[in-house]
Every structure is written in C-alpha cells, then in structure tokens.
C-alpha cells in the first residue's frame, strides 16, 4: 500500500492539475499523505476544514438539508472549485475536491457510517458515496478508507493510473452520481461554470485563465474598430487581449441562445472570445483578476457616475474599490460625443482611483465607427 500510495501521490504532484480541498468529518489523512510527499505545492492551492455546521454553511453559501449527503458533497466540491478559480495564477487545469462524512466516534451513532467524496471540474461533477459496514473498522480504519477514496478520485481527475485499492466488505460498494456536460457552452448554460472561451479556430473551453487585456462589448456587430482597439491595446500592454461578451445585461433581457451563437460565430479566425454572465465591471473583475479592461470614453463616463449605481455615490465607490482590489485597471479610448472628441481628461474621477485609469492617446487610436449606425445601415439596405 505504501509504495502504491507514494507513487500515486507523486503522479498527482507531477500532473499539471491544481486543486482546492474541503474536507469535513473525514479525509484529513488524505491531506497528510499529499503533504508528506515532496511537490505538494504544485498540487494544493488551499485546504479547508469546515467542520462545524456554521463553518460548513458559510463555506458553501447556504444551509444544506444534511451536511453528509450527495448534495452537500457536491456543494462543497463546487465551493472548493470556486476558491481554486480565485487562487490560481496560471493556465493549469483546476479541480475542487471535497469529502463530507460521518464515521465512528466516541459515542454510539444510530445512523449509518458513511462518506461522500465530491469532485468538481470545468467538464462536470461527480460524487462517490460509500456506506460503511458498522463495527467492521474503528475510526482510524474508516478514516483511512475514505482518504484512499479521495486520492483515487483526485488521481482520476489528474489522469494518474489508479494503483490504490479499496478494501471493502461484501456489503460495501461505491455509488457514483454526477453529470458530465457535452460541451463547455452546455456547462455554462447550466451555470456549472462561469465562462467559456472560444478560440478563433472554433474550439472552446470552460473557465480558462487569462492574463492581459479584456475588451468587453455587445459586438452587435463586431467591427473593424473593435479589432483595431484590440491591436492597439495589445501593443500597449505587451500582452494578449481577448473579447468578452456578457449574455446578461443590467437593463435588458438575457441574450437568446441563437443570438449568442450568432455573435460567437463572428469571431471565427478573428480572435478569442470569452462569454460570461457578468454585466458590470466589478463582476468581471472577479472573473479576470489582474487584467486590464479596454473601454471607450462613453463607458468610462458611466463607470464613475453615481446615476448608474441607483444614484448612490457609496455604491459607485464600492464597485470601483472591488475592481481595484482585484488588481484590475482600465485603458480608455477617446470617443466622439456631440461632435467633440472626448478623452479621459474630460471625465471627473475620484482621486483615490485615478491611478487605475490610463489613456490610449488619440494619435495611437481613434475610431468613429458606430455599431448603431452599422445596424441602421444594414436594415436600410
């Protein structure tokens, strides 16, 4: 067992997969084993033990009907995955791994001794449930069995050969539940993931890490001005810039699926597009920490106007603070307004946030193309 355990853990550490863990009730031995093999920092982003009911509820964001159940394990794995999203700093794949269990203790339990090991990835989720034969093992034995199940689950997610064996009695077996999505867009529509990136070659992937610039818009339609802005911003940042389309809007209905697919199609052989459900910049900042948003003067005006925050200055400050705290900033391109070319200098910015706004000079970029005018022209032809 020890040689197989060591080889399995070494394989996990040597894989590119990053994991956030949440274990409650059992599973601490799996964590100890992982940390005892050199290279654990290449695997573990965070390890959390939400042991009390309050801690558990706060971690997953709601009060579960039962803390030891398939649904609770699924929620725990989802919360761990969300933590991994926020903690990662490169393009390696991430997973959330969880265990919730009730096992032998210093008092008699009327219910079953059982555990549920959850796994959340961008492709889907799984929960492996095991009801233990009461009295067959002591607490340490039950703890070890569930910890092995955790490592087997993680090894599978890391594409590491399954070397570990679960020594189960004839009355014990693993029940698996879960869902694997056919496409990243399907997973996105079912709210399993937060974003889908469509590469210009037509392929797609969920929850891709991005570092660089982000040009957000409705792209109705995508036009040369957008493409020129991306080129200029990429040179300015010396980093890649992606397009971002939110399928939800603050004051309009969500985009229909057919409309989303039509807009996605515009980017084939043009550039990478990420779709989200984040209509406002403080939400986008949570999805793209450390990134630079490329915006026009008209968007800049709304960003610092309390009118667009229900008239509340405090809400505006809070939103800008969240963007700044996420390490995000802005590149601002000038725009024509009332026959005058307006720039960053024409916008009053709260002093504390002035450093997160930088201007794209008119000499570097100016585009008077209007999406509205393009749509009107196409209707009249």
Write structural notes for this entry.
- This protein has 381 residues and is of the alpha/beta class.
- The protein has two domains: 2-180, Maf protein (Alpha-Beta Complex); 184-379, HUPs (Rossmann fold, 3-Layer(aba) Sandwich).
- It has twelve helices and 16 strands.
- The protein has helices spanning 2-14, 28-36, 53-60, 70-87, 139-157, 184-189, 224-237, 257-265, 281-287, 297-303, 313-325, 371-379; strands at 18-24, 44-48, 94-102, 113-120, 124-132, 174-180, 195-198, 204-206, 213-216, 241-246, 273-276, 292-296, 329-333, 335-337, 340-342, 357-360.
- It has an eight-stranded mixed β-sheet with strand order 8-7-11-10-9-12-13-16. A six-stranded mixed β-sheet has the order 2-1-3-4-5-6.
- Strand 1, helix 2 (28-36) and strand 2 (44-48) form a beta-alpha-beta unit.
- Helix 1 packs parallel to helix 5 (139-157), helix 2 (28-36) packs across helix 5 (139-157) and helix 9 (281-287) runs parallel beside helix 11 (313-325).
- The longest helix is centred in the middle third of the chain and has 19 residues, at 139-157.
- It is elongated and about 85 Å long.
- The chain starts with a helix and ends with a helix.
- The mean pLDDT is 95.
Q: What is the arithmetic mean of pLDDT?
A: 95
Largest sheet composition = 8 strands, mixed
CATH topology of the largest domain: Rossmann fold
Radius of gyration: 25 Å
* Major beta sheet, strand line-up: 8-7-11-10-9-12-13-16
Distance between the termini: 74 Å
What percentage of residues falls in helices of 4 or more residues? 25-40%
DSSP strand content:
15-25%
């Amino acid at each position: 067992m020890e040689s197989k355990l060591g080889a399995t853990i070494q394989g996990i550490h040597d894989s590119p997969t990053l994991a956030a863990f949440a274990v409650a009730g059992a599973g601490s031995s799996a964590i100890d084993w992982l940390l005892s093999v050199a290279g654990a920092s290449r695997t573990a982003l965070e390890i959390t033990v939400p042991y009390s009911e309050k801690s558990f509820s706060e971690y997953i964001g709601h009060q579960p009907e039962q803390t030891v159940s398939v649904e609770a394990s699924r929620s725990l794995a989802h919360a761990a995955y969300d933590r991994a999203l926020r903690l990662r700093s490169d393009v390696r794949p991430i997973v959330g791994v969880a265990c919730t269990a009730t096992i032998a203790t210093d008092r008699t339990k009327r219910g079953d001794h059982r555990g549920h090991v959850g796994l959340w990835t961008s492709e889907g989720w799984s929960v492996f449930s095991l009801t233990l034969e009461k009295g067959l093992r002591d607490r340490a034995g039950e703890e070890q069995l569930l910890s092995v199940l955790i490592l087997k689950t993680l090894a599978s997610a890391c594409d590491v050969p399954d070397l570990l064996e679960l020594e189960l009695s004839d009355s014990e077996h693993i029940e698996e539940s879960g869902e694997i999505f056919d496409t990243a867009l399907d997973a996105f529509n079912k709210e399993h993931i937060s974003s889908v990136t469509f590469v210009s070659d037509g392929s797609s992937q969920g929850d891709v890490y991005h570092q660089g610039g982000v040009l957000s818009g409705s792209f109705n339609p995508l036009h040369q001005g957008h493409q020129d802005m991306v080129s200029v911003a990429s040179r300015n940042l010396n980093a890649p810039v992606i397009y971002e389309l939110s399928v939800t809007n603050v004051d309009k209905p969500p985009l229909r699926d057919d409309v989303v697919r039509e807009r996605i199609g515009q980017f084939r052989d043009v550039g990478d597009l990420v779709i989200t459900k984040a209509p406002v910049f403080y939400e986008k900042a949570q999805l793209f920490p450390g990134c630079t948003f490329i915006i026009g003067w008209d968007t800049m005006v709304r960003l610092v106007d309390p009118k667009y925050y229900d008239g509340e200055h405090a809400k505006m400050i809070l939103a800008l603070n969240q963007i700044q705290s996420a390490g995000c900033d802005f590149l601002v391109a000038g725009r024509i307004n009332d026959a005058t070319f307006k720039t960053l200098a024409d916008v009053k910015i709260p002093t504390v946030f002035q450093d997160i706004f930088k201007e794209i000079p008119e000499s570097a970029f100016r585009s008077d193309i209007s999406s509205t005018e393009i749509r009107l022209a196409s209707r009249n032809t």
